[in-house]
Amino acid sequence: MKEKLKSGLQSLTDKSKKAWRSFSARCATGWKSFSRAVAKGWKSFSAMISEGWKAFTKTKFAIAIRHCAARIWDSRPMRSIRYKAGAWKSRLLNKAPPEQSPEENAARTEKKSVAEMVEDGDFTTEAIENELRREKFRHRYSGLLRSTVYALIVTAAAAALIATLLLPVLQIYGNSMTPTLYEGDIVVSVKTSSYDYGDICSFYYSNRILVKRVIGKPLDVIMIDDDGNISVNGKMIDEPYIKEKAKGECDIELPFRVPEGSYFMVGDHRLTSIDSRSSSIGCVSRDEIVGKILFTVWPPKHIGVEK
């Protein structure tokens, strides 16, 4: 009986140790996977914010903010504040206060502080009123300055977040979408969950963003003849947005069935566009799509809603 009990306890102990080792290994593996996913996501988010901020700093709005800040910094009240700060620092370090320009010396002579008025015997009702007006103006100016700076910071942050997360702004490179979009055009896209035939979409490919048009949805059957005519599910599609049809670089096996969760995208300039007709790009997964192009904002001659 003792032998069986001892053997049973030993077997239970071994199984417990084995189960604990297995549980610990699985926890460690899960934690490593979670840590890698978090690190990858944070890196991607940081890169996205950095690119958005770099793009924002090059805009005319950011340049105007810098000029406004420079003018505020060089204004007379700010110079006075800098002088007072330097004077207090000099007193703390037992040094002579910084030199002032003749204009600042004259202004300081005209606008004495309460302590100087008491010392000079100029402590009159008019002097008190002037000092109160000066203090009210100083507080009002500093409050207005803080409010303006805070509003500019919040506006800039909101604009950067909107441009990065909700309405990505893109610039067109190449001529694969002519005559709809031209090289150098700046377009605005929107993130959405569904895409229809004819929508112009941007998507990630090899660390770049390409812009093409949706021709086929998931599970559609695509057929392209030698003249460049495209039929979807046996029906020839009407494409008024292209000028010249061409089969282009097409090395996929036809007829081609679009995989589940993917889209068949083709450029409007069929002869030169490299798109889903080529096996090097293939169909575009829904997760790779950045958004649907809504309208062109620059240059002025191309401004309008895209179709």
Keywords:
17% strand; flat; 12 strands; 8-stranded antiparallel sheet; Umud Fragment, subunit A; alpha+beta; 307 residues; single chain; 4-stranded antiparallel sheet
Describe the structure.
- The protein has 307 residues and is an alpha+beta fold.
- Among the domains are: 63-74 and 111-166; 170-305, Umud Fragment, subunit A (Ribbon).
- It is 47% helix and 17% strand.
- It contains six helices and twelve strands.
- It has helices at 2-57, 60-73, 76-92, 102-110, 114-120, 125-166, and strands at residues 169-171, 186-190, 200-205, 208-216, 221-224, 230-232, 235-236, 256-257, 262-266, 284-285, 289-298, 304-305.
- Strands 1, 2, 3, 4, 9, 10, 11 and 12 form an eight-stranded antiparallel beta sheet that branches.
- Helix 1 (2-57) packs across helix 6 (125-166).
- It is flat and about 95 Å long.
